Amino acid sequence: MQNDIEKILLDEKTLSSIVNEMGAKISADYQGRNLLMISVLKGSVVFMADLMRAVTIPCRIDFMAVSSYGSGIKTSGVVKIVKDLDINLEGYDLLIVEDILDSGKTLHYIRELLAARNPKSIRICTLLDKPERRQVELEADYVGARVPDEFVVGYGLDYDEKYRNLPYVGVLKPCVYEGK
Ligand code: IMP
Ligand code: MG
Fold first, then answer.
1. Tens digits of per-residue pLDDT, 51-60?
2. DSSP string of 71-86?
3. Segment (H or E) for 97
4. Cα of 56 to ligand 1 centre, how many Å?
5. Is the dihedral of CA 128, 132, 135, 137 positive or negative?
6. Any catalytic annotation for residue 86?
């Protein structure tokens, strides 16, 4: 698995300080509010698990799953709900937790969908942001790190459902997906 990684972008120590800083900021911003953290499966599961423990105020969590990629590396533009939320969103201050903001299509779709369910507020928190790749106008409220336009894996992010269990974020060698 390690042999397929070209270089490490964010090591474990860096990720931990990014997540702790975000957790502190979210805790301060949401003090006295009704925080519901929504993890977008599966990519954000590792980030979510760490981030929720860096949040020091009471909060609830829920999960939803969408698919937009299939097994390739480019978005199809088609977003499908694979698993919906369990909680009724009325009265909650939602924080959508994502692994990476790329074209923006996935989060744009999710935000519109959840906004229609009358939450009190919605913000977006993403571990990684690839601003060069944006196709719809969308900015996250909390961004862990900006990354270059390269395909990255690890810390929850996959290629063809693999590499999610790497403890760091690294660039995948193009030879792994070229020719597919
Ligand atoms: P968007 O709709 O193009 O913004 O795509 C967002 C989703 O695409 C993310 O939640 C990831 O699952 C996936 N994705 C985008 N870029 C990468 C990458 O570099 N590595 C792994 N997954 C990615
Ligand atoms: Mg993915």
1. 999 999 999 9
2. TSSS--S--EEEE--S
3. strand 93-101
4. 28
5. positive
6. no
